[in-house]
């Protein structure tokens, strides 16, 4: 069995934190987690595991992404392309999984981060449409926050975002939005007419 990232380096037998048998690459330090081993270990975990909310972008995780993270890979067991699921942190990374044999590939350090985030017991859920959709929504929200801060400055941008969240949660929030549009829209028209 060859490393899916280094391609010609054989994977060696090992254990992941003395919990279950894995294969690892001595070169890139990635880990192949066979589905049989992972699922047996997963079944021994508390049964109340549910998909947590997405981790916040600013989560302070000391993590240096592997240079192999962006590299496409084939499953070392069945030679099919590995699917990728994005874990959206300040430094985002991808976990990979074979959709055929269900084995999981973690580049160096990724398993540790999954464990710190509480995602290590539900890796398969990261590949669901629900998780991927939430990840895309989170990315768009982060870009919107950044653009707001760039246009209005950090302080006013933060106030606008906070106000937007308050109005969205209020039963009559649309009234507040309409007021702001009239107020700001009127000033904008006057400014452009001069």
TrEMBL record:
It comes from Coleofasciculus chthonoplastes PCC 7420. This is Transcription factor zinc-finger domain-containing protein. Residues 2-41, 75-114 form the Transcription factor zinc-finger domain. It comes from the Bacteria. InterPro entries: TF_Znf.
């Amino acid at each position: 069995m060859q490393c899916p990232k280094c391609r010609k380096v054989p994977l060696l037998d090992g254990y992941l934190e003395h919990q279950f048998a894995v294969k690892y690459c001595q070169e890139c330090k990635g880990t192949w987690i066979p589905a049989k081993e992972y699922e047996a270990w997963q079944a021994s975990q508390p049964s109340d595991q549910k998909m947590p909310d997405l981790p916040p972008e600013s989560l302070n995780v000391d993590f240096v992404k592997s240079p192999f993270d962006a590299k496409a890979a084939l499953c070392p067991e069945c030679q099919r392309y590995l699917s990728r699921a994005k874990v959206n942190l300040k430094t985002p990374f991808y976990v990979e999984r074979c959709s055929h044999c269900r084995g999981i590939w973690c580049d160096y350090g990724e398993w540790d981060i999954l464990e710190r985030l509480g995602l290590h017991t539900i890796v398969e859920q990261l590949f669901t449409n629900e998780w991927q959709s939430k990840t895309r929504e989170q990315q768009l929200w982060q870009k919107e926050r950044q653009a707001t801060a760039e246009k209005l400055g950090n302080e006013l941008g933060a106030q606008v975002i906070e106000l937007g969240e308050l109005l969205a949660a209020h039963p009559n929030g649309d009234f507040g939005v309409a007021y702001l549009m009239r107020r700001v829209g009127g000033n904008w028209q006057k400014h452009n007419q001069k």
